[in-house]
Amino acid sequence: MPSGKAMSHIVRLPDGSSEGVWGSYVLRTAFQPIFAFDDRRRLSVCAYEGLLRPFRDALPHRPQDFFLSIPTADRFQVETVSRTLHLLNAGVFLDETAQIFVNFDPSLFGDPKLIDGVLRDMRLVLHEARLDATRVVCEVTEQKSVYESALSDFVSACRRHGFTIAVDDYGAEDSDMERVVALKPDIVKFDARWIRRLMDTGPGRALLAIMVREFRDRGIICIFEGIEEDWQLEVADEAGADMVQGYLLARPELVPGDFGRTTHGTPHADASDRASGRRLPARAAKQDAGRRSFGRRHGG
After folding, report:
1. Residue 3: how many CA atoms within 13 Å on its side-chain side?
2. What letter would DSSP give residue 248?
3. At what angle do helices 192-199 and 230-239 cross, to 10 degrees?
4. CA 52, 193, 204, 172 torsion-angle sign
């Protein structure tokens, strides 16, 4: 869907926010912060994930139910409208140092020409939103059901356009470390339900630490999703996770909201902290210069 067609489904509101319209639904953006550990065991916001929130007759509907209601033929268009909406709102409401995570379904991008067209259109949206491409993180799910060549082509195209690459939901279903490493992503997000099961046992926690070390030795940043309790945050820190995301830290918030000022009042955070916009956790920054830094690729 060309950016102009996506824009035909978007309405600008007086408060500066943008909403999408799809049939009887109004589509809104919610941003959930992603936090980075620093070397003093505090947390600060370094990024936000754009999440779609559908409403019908002014009542909220579950995103899963909305997407299930979309015919297969329209799924590509709806996802394009969603990303466009998130990027426009990011340009208005997020701190200019924060990264923005947006989701892609790689199964929709089997044609290399389609991939480049979509990414070029996204660059036009970024120009309108006054966002730099280096701030955008393209999230994809590594799935065995998706042809490896198609997923590799998509990741390579994102990289050519200057975007950062994140593999989402690692550990869910049939994800595989070798296939993930072969994609050479900048970031891996560990699946929330999967890591919660591993956190419950000593061997599971040891396995998490091993996997984090394996990824980080390859210059890949690790994010633990679904952090809902203080003890899980402690385990994430002990396992060496670079970043964390979850309801314990901050829930998704609809735009317009007070973004860029979220801190977490646990021993990891100082109530006086403000979002630092730190691109890379200090612990990871101390590693050798050959590693990728968050949102940047050395020698690439």
Report:
1. 19
2. T
3. 90
4. negative
Banded model confidence at residue 108, pLDDT cuts 50, 70, 90: confident
Residue 83 to residues 90, 147, 180, 217, 255, Cα–Cα distance (Å):
10, 23, 24, 32, 14
Distance CA 118, CA 240 (A): 35
Alpha-carbon span 33 to 262, nearest angstrom: 8
- Cα 208 to its chain centre, rounded Å, is 20
* Domain extents in the chain: 3-283
pTM comes to 0.82
pLDDT tens digits along 232-291: 999 999 999 999 999 999 999 999 877 754 444 443 443 234 333 333 333 333 333 332
Under 8 Å between Cβ of 61 and 67: no
What is the identity of the amino acid at 73? A
**253: which residues sit within 8 A by CB, 6+ positions away?**
30, 31, 32, 259
CB within 8 Å of 158: residues ≥ 6 apart: 119, 138, 165
- Has residue 110 got a pLDDT over 50? yes
**What sign results for the dihedral spanned by CA atoms 183, 185, 189, 195?**
positive
What are residue 71's DSSP bridge partners?
none
State which CATH number among 3.20.20.450, 3.30.70.100, 3.40.50.1820, 3.90.230.10 fits the domain covering 3-283: 3.20.20.450
Q: Tokens standing for 13? A: 């509101």
**53, 159, 188, 290, 292 from 299: Cα distances, Å:** 39, 13, 21, 9, 9
